Amino acid sequence: MGGADCERLVDAVLAQPVLAVTSLAYLIAAGLVLTWAVPADSLLAGTAGVVLLTVGIDSFAYHGPQPSWAQPAHDWPILAVAVVYTFALLRTGRRRWRVWAGAGAVFALAVAAHLAGRTGSPLCSPDSWWQWHGVWHVLSATAAASGARAMVRPG
């Protein structure tokens, strides 16, 4: 598992320590989103927060201890994020376009980092503490938290 993410797999508690730690960015994003969603009684933002929480836990498991169930657990919540955020964008995009534009810009940077950090890319350095896939984790979590602000009515 994690062979395409550049960071070398090691025989330790955390198979990919940098990526395991940066996966925690999704837990931080989830916490922020839920603190906005609950008082605003926003089911959509609350759903985004719960899905981000799941992404963080499962990404940590995938890059960290790598139990046998980690591969599907890593991938399915990411698909759920895509569904929730696509629905939210279609529902709120016109009214909250400025929020979505900012989230989209950060997400574009995240995608660039993700592509830069693939195994075999010129920027891949498997033994480095700087991992582009880790940058993807932090930036995509930031974009997700930013986008979730569009799901909460201003006020």
Main traits of this protein?
0% strand, transmembrane, Ceramidase, transmembrane helix, 6 helices, membrane
Radius of gyration: 16 Å
> Would you count the extended β strands for me?
0
Measure the end-to-end span: 44 Å
Task: Look at the structure and give the mean pLDDT.
Answer: 94
Question: Number of helical runs?
Answer: 6
Largest sheet: none
Organism: Mycolicibacterium thermoresistibile (strain ATCC 19527 / DSM 44167 / CIP 105390 / JCM 6362 / NCTC 10409 / 316)
Transmembrane segments: 18-36, 43-62, 74-90, 97-117
Protein name: Ceramidase
Keywords: Membrane, Transmembrane, Transmembrane helix
Overview of the structural elements:
- The chain is mainly alpha-helical.
- It is 67% helix and 0% strand.
- The protein has helices spanning 17-22, 25-40, 43-63, 70-92, 97-116, 132-149.
- Helix 3 (43-63) runs antiparallel to helix 6.
- The radius of gyration is 16 Å and the shape is globular.
- The chain starts with 16 loop residues before the first helix and ends in a 6-residue tail after the last helix.
- The chain crosses the membrane at residues 18-36, 43-62, 74-90, 97-117.
